[in-house]
Model the fold of this input.
Amino acid sequence: MALRLGFARRLLSTSSFASQLSAPAATAAATAAAGDKPAPIPSDTLFVSGLNKRTTTEKLHEAFSQFGQVVHAKVVTDRNSGYSKGFGFVKYMSIEDAAKGIEGMDAKFLDGWVIFAEYARPRPPPGQATSQDPYTRRSGY
Done:
């Protein structure tokens, strides 16, 4: 769902579709697509989604190293098949390099698929439950 909202926000703000709407309508549409998500906090680590299942860590590192000094890149893979789960992380030396990486690779093709790059959100502290944790939600019985 979040991926769809991000895509809709990009579509409304960057395409010719936005030029066809009146200014207030375009602003309202972009705000509605953004939802209640806070603005991303700049980080030296990027979250990359939309990866092809055949994308390797080496290809991810190579693609993002064009925009700054990459410290570490990791494609998250399935334990059983070894294929990509469709997302990964890229860590840069500086926040400025990470911003260049987002600018250079967000909504671009890698291995035939359009990928999306954004600042990675920090992990919650251990033991703190998230709202999407099925074991902490109240059940109806």
